[in-house]
Amino acid sequence: MAQVGIVMGSDSDLPVMKKAAEVLDEFGISYEMNIISAHREPDLFFEWAKGAKDRGIKVIIAGAGMAAHLPGMCAALFPLPVIGVPMHTTSLGGRDSLYSIVQMPSGIPVATVAIGGAKNAGILAAKILAVSDEALLEKLEKYSADMAAEVMAKDARLKEEMRSKD
Ligand code: RP5
């Protein structure tokens, strides 16, 4: 049974939303991935979002662009956490998507990541699931430690390059 529901408003969102799926793969988290437009197929969208909890979904990652109502409507229909991913747009640079997703009315939160921030959405979903999954928490701690080690290695390389110039 999938633990995370990834949903996006259009196939044009897929190149970005794939990054969330890649992170979930890395952490061994099961997910379903769907293209469902809240505007173009509202009945199907309602059915999917209302049924998500009973399908075992614990977190929804919803990506959309322009007048991006999909994540907010997921939050209205699904009782567990929803993470919103605003898509970059050519006309307004993604500010339209960002504001549509982040400016939710009181009582219906959407945890909104950066414009195009699907990778962080995947990590945040993993962190939410890790609240009750010790093995997953250990993987996340290793992920953070590996990141820190990478930065330290880059710093050491930089220092070495600077020394070799002296
Ligand atoms: C939104 O409209 C989608 O999430 C997409 O980001 C945007 C444009 O959709 P297409 O016209 O590319 O299908 O619903």
Amount of helix = 40-55%
What value does the Rg take, in angstroms?
Answer: 18 Å
Number of helices: 6
Shape: globular
Give the strand order, joined by hyphens, for the main sheet: 2-1-3-4-5
Total beta strand runs: 5
Bound molecules: 5-O-phosphono-beta-D-ribofuranose
- Assess the beta-strand content as a share of residues: 5-15%
Distance between the termini: 59 Å
Largest sheet: 5 strands, parallel
Structural class: alpha/beta
Q: What are the low-pLDDT stretches, counting only 5+ consecutive residues below 50?
A: none
Provide an overview of this structure:
Helix content is 51%, strand content 14%. The chain has six helices and five strands, in the order βαβαβαβαβαα. It starts with a strand and ends with a helix. Bound molecules: 5-O-phosphono-beta-D-ribofuranose. 5-O-phosphono-beta-D-ribofuranose (RP5) is lined by residues 8-10, 12-13, 37, 39, 64-66, 87. 5-O-phosphono-beta-D-ribofuranose is lined by residues 8-10, 12-13, 37, 39, 64-66, 87.
